[in-house]
Amino acid sequence: MSNKEIKNCKRKLKSDDNDDEIWSKLTREQIIQRCKQLEKHVEQLRNTIIKKNENEINEKKIKKTKIMRPFDFSKHSKRHIFLKFIYLGWDYHGFVVQETTSQTVEDFLFDALIKTRLIEERATANYHRCGRTDRGKLISNKKKQTEGVSAFTQVISLTVRSKITAECTEELNYVQMLNGVLPSSIRCIAWASVPDGKSARFDCISRSYRYYFPKTNLDLNRMRQASVDLIGTHDFRNFCKLDITNTEPTFIRRIDNVTIEQLNIDNDSNDYNSGYEMCQLMVHGSGFLWHQIRCIVAILILIGQGKEEIDLVKALFDIEKYPCTPNYQIASVLFDCQFNGVDWICDQASLRITICHLQRQWSSFQIRATMIKSMLNNLESQICDKKQLPILGQLSLIDNESNSLLGYNNNNNRRNYQPILTRPVRESVEVKLEKYQNKKVKSEITNEDNKNETNQSDDVVV
Measured between alpha carbons, how far is 240 from 391 in angstroms, rounded to an integer? Predict the structure, then answer.
């Protein structure tokens, strides 16, 4: 170490001593004020880092993006169509475009649509989506992995460039064009010509969600009994993430059917642990609230674990008694949607390529799952008392209790478990709405003041 570095170290130590003296002389109120200032400073630094990272990502994108040749859209006819997609959502931060990230499914879709010259820009494309799938739960802090929401069927409607003219009757192969530039985890599988006024959002007759989970120690009959109370038209404010951007929010939704089935995928005759058998929960309805299905799944699983009573669903529908949502973890699901009177056009070559992509994904995950399952079989065969076999599975992803990681069927979990109806609650709809309106008014006043200051500075004659 050089003399210069030693002197710098000494200076740092001296400054630390001075800081200790300063802090020791501060009153309680002064320390609180100082902490608040430091928190603001940390928040500013955090925002600066986020912006810097976003700028770096955008710069990389710009470098990768080739300069596109001019294209005259006025020379081409247009038509309104539906596009059907499937995607595996765990690599993305949800479906809908967000300000804080460019890693959404919609970002990649519009990049592909613009790159293939099917649309000029989103604003003029008359675009609608059938539904939104949100970013999944964080399942690994080290690698920031998320259990994202995937789509079995996602449909969008938009107006695109067409090849049809008086002389040409053969249309562009939309499926093939888009799949040529989309990531392998996002695949277009069909398109359909529809009238100009038809919307993927407003003309969808039914939406459904699927949730796959290992049976573990769940009582499926209890879950089925509880799910019956979900069917019908109810106020689902205690089963969703509150969205108060609408001045008069409504939480009334209709659920047509709920089914819970055991798939019996695992037929290993030497398997001592039936908890590995997979199950499927399906919810059908006309439309859903933000995180509504995730919340429903989480509640049903807690009932299946025996931690909550079967009538919990009915109790949460009592808005007068429980106007605020209790705190609980949510699950991750698979989205699907259905339409009437739409004639889908599938390109067989593109369909085969999509099947190959999915087969590669399935093969990769199945090999890993088989290896892990073999290890589990080997270890479980060494346990003498088969009744004490650990059963963990996917439930640990929505269970914050440290004891749940042990996976044993003991009573410790139940003793430490706090029932949902006795937990702290989130803010009510009315409180959230009032805060949002106040924030909106303050923002408008600030913008008006800034505008007036700008106008006054323009009037100053130098």
Answer: 29
- Residues labelled catalytic: 134
Q: Which domains does the chain have, with CATH numbers?
A: 76-204+339-346 (3.30.70.580), 206-338+359-437 (3.30.70.660)
Min mean pLDDT across 48-57, 164-173, 290-299, 431-440 is at 48-57
> Which pLDDT tens digit goes with each residue over 358-382?
999 899 989 998 998 898 888 888 8
* pTM metric for this prediction: 0.70
- Residue scoring higher pLDDT (436 or 258): 258
Model pLDDT, residue 140: 41
Identify the band that residue 341 occupies on the pLDDT scale cut at 50, 70 and 90. Answer: confident
Closest CA to 413 of 392, 432, 383: 392
